[in-house]
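User: Show me sequence and structure for the first protein, then do the same for the second.

Assistant: Starting with the first protein.
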Amino acid sequence: MASTQLSHHNFRPIPAVRLTSHRLSPTKPTTTRLPLQYFKNKSSTLKLKADQKHIKWAIGLSLVDQSPPKSTVDVERLVGFLYDDLPHLFDDQGIDRTAYDEVVKFRDPITKHDTISGYLFNITLLKTLFRPEFQLHWVKQTGPYEITTRWTMIMKFILLPWNPELVFTGTSIMGINPETGKFCSHVDFWDSIKKNDYFSLEGLLDVLKQLRIYKTPDLESPKYQILKRTANYEVRKYTPFIVVEANGDKLAGSTGFNDVTGYIFGKNSRSEKIPMTTPVFTQASDAELSKVSIQVVLPLEKDISSLPDPNQETISLRKVEGGIAAVLKFSGRATEEIVQEKEKALRDSLINDGLKPKTGCLFARYNDPGRTRSFVMRNEVLIWLEEFSLD
């Protein structure tokens, strides 16, 4: 939905140009009508063929006024309208079709429609097959008759038994018809691909890539919002969460795991059992990825002041303040070497994209390695970012 802007120019009709030609030999003047495509730029040199002879003509043409006609369109009002209307894209209320021309150009990398009916049919199809969740980040005027929106769309493909989650983020360019004051075009651009023109093979491959199987346990996890998804990583905004942690040895290691799980299984000052969550984190807090702790996330409704104290001095409770993290997702059994390779690949991608990654990283494991086949395991490497903007 779009990071490239479209220009909408309205050209006034140009009448046919009448040229009077005088042959080199004294004859009666003739009149020739030329189609518009012969005239380019402010001055054009035209070649005409007459009686086997080529005659050059120099024709001075005044520039055609290409500025849009005066309009009373209230673009600021339309910006506010989209803030209210687009969140209903996939709910029972739906968008207001009266805000669109009947002939409206809709394009994304793998879909196109040229009427409002086709556009609404596409929305209905997505609702039926994917159960989409649409998040609108911002709406801005980016031209005299152009508005840009930034969004995230998360979809679960319900026809496949593992219900894969597809994530798309990007921008949409909304063109406004200056005569009707309605939207006449809607063009989407995805952050995850480079070729956004229809039909994009890269876009189709991006969809197919996201259909792979990941097994995520039906357990509570830290809450986050996906702000952007590129070809190499996601950028997420995490809300605060609490962890119980102990010292570890390696990012892919399990040292300290029994201690932190012992706390939630009742080895605490109140012998209180706490529900299991996911993922299990290992965190490296130094640049060499050598200073490691292992963490289990506690249920989100828990408050750190009301939790029981650990029985062991090596166990501690800590509130993670959340923030913006870049995340690289992968499957398989993760060795120390693989995790560090993924961390380096993610860090290099962030630096290449002009972002500022913090020191260290988190490695998230969502599955029990003794009960889960390696090819469906969900693993993630997270790196906190110094700053991030969607502008």
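Switching to the second protein now.
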Amino acid sequence: MKQRKATHQKSVYNYNKWKKRKIFVMLSLLLLLGFCLVLTHNSTTTNTTRSRILTLASLRSHFIVQKPKIAFLFIARNRLPLDMLWDAFFKGQESRFSIFVHSRPGFLFNKANTRSEYFLNRQVNGSIQVDWGEASMIEAERILLRHALVDPLNERFVFLSDSCIPLYNFSYTFDYIMSTSTSFVDSFADTKEGRYNPKMAPLVPVYNWRKGSQWVVLTRKHAEVVVNDTTVFPMFQQHCKRRSLPEFWRDHPIPADTSMEHNCIPDEHYVQTLLAREGLEGEITRRSLTHSSWDLSSSKDPQRRGWHPVTYKFSDATPTLIQSIKDVDNIYYETEYRREWCSSKGKPSRCFLFARKFTRPAAFRLLNMSVLGAFRKATNKS
């Protein structure tokens, strides 16, 4: 009897022991399952958070409006003699401009020929030899525009020569140019005989014939019109030739009929005539932002008189000169009996933002005299 009782107690003990193990195993499994669920939840939460962050970043980059830039397009013979003056002008405005330089084929801007980092390697590929009074000047402009249009942020395109100087600081210049949706293109009817070649008709009719300064400021739309032109440019190449001058007749034979040659000056007619032909004159402000002084008595040769603007040398570079240029607030066009009163942002303003032609000594004298804006703090009244 005692033995049966002991056996029963042992059996109950073993059952209870097995039951405890079963409960322990079940609890362990439940704990393990719970731990896995927590890990899964945390992983899902992390992935969700990461996904949300990436989505927000994508949306943020999509909706951020990138700031427009002005492309400064320099036409140079070789180096830029006024590079350090422009260096002071551009300093601190790196996100608001781009620079492109057309120089002679093979010329490379490096530390040996420019002290400004802004011009290092900024020469465009595919440059050509440019001859004054020939259509090659137009092609150089078109090459510069092709390169500048690659950057979608470039919204204005300013043509400058290697002898140009800025009259105001960058911020004032930028606001002035960007305050209007128009291009700045000096353009007026050219009634001087011998400039228009009748052979250009009918593709380039005489009533679209215009003249003006080549130093224009174009909107992106008008820059694309120039680059995509396949009609007017070939006409200029074929029929807009420079008339032979007496001093060159020893190198080239005198043409049989010199009356058939036309002193067209392509760079002063092309953009103006193209925009007129395309019906876009309503989208331009018909004046230049670059000042040039044309002295009709500067040459002894009547055929060359007035063909080139005055060059300012060291002795000419004075505060009085700069202020006289800044004070110009209107331009009169004789052929159209039109006086263009200059304005900016709907208010009367000075006409010019740039000036030429300045020698290197003259430009650096002005910079040393702190005459040119003070580039750090120019105002509308400066």
